[in-house]
Amino acid sequence: QVHLVESGGGLVQAGGSLRLSCVASGMIFSDNIMAWYRQAPGKQRELVAQISNGGNTGYGGSVKGRFTISRDDAKNTVFLQMNSLGPEDTAVYYCFARKYDSTVYSWGRGTQVTVSS
User: Fold this and answer.
1) For FRET with 81, which of 25, 68, 93, 115 sits at 20 to 30 Å CA-CA?
2) 58 touches 71 (CB < 8 A)
3) Confidence label for 33 from pLDDT (cuts 50, 70 and 90)
């Protein structure tokens, strides 16, 4: 059974930075596309960033140039470095995993990020 556990969320002032981590277990990490999504109150969940099992990255338009996704396959961990945070980045951030050749996916339970103005 796949488990994804996020950490690193918290309260930060506008302009600050946070680094989220997601540790995966129960799967072959290097076979998985990993991603971060977020969901703000009253809004739909949206893709923030994704990284393929080959290391190719993609970002949602609102975070390009501010957020960086990376992975450490040796540690079964995906990271999200978030810089220049603004109140609009306030949301629950979820880790997502999907095996590259499958439609089966998994979600973490989320970590809250709150940015004060």
Assistant:
1) 25
2) no
3) very high
